[in-house]
Structure prediction request, 201 residues.
Amino acid sequence: MELSPRARDRLERIGELSQEEKDRLKDSEELTQLLSDYFTDKLSPEDLWMTLKGYKDEGKESMIREAQLSLANALALESSDLDFERYRNGILAVETLKGQGQYLDLERNLNSIQSLRHQYREEKGRAFKALKANIEKQIEMAARQMAQQTGNKQLAVDIQGSAEATVRNSHQWKDFVSRHEREYSWEFKNRLAKLNTILQT
Prediction:
């Protein structure tokens, strides 16, 4: 895995760093690699838990918190359910290492975020279907009129494809998407902020 410019710069100045800074840099790079493997499905939540437990046993408690915060920051309004479930499982698995009794609060908050994501998608889907149904009627009517005018009863029109393309390019749909994403992004950030607050206590 390629190092970030900042990490490369710090490695170039490694001789100037104290032993504590060298250890922190090494831990940071190890955690980055660990999470990269988790995000790309090379590690299961159990594997992640076992590795982080090893860090805990070494007295590196801060790596547990950093791992959770990184997993929380990976949550997105439009990520797939599979990805969301993976990050959620990671956050909850790691929480059991902290022993602070926040598991249920975290689970409730994550369920709330997941519920918001489903609501976001369902409303967007319903709005698209409603607009598409209206456009389909207009296209069907136009196709019938054209068939009557030309006398061509075999006129082939891809009503569904045309309706989808028309909706996606319409100002009405673009305005809805912009407003919808703005409203839900605001609420998603609020719920994510609550999650981060729990993780940092």
The chain has a mean pLDDT of 86. The chain has two domains: 1-99, 102-201. The radius of gyration is 25 Å.
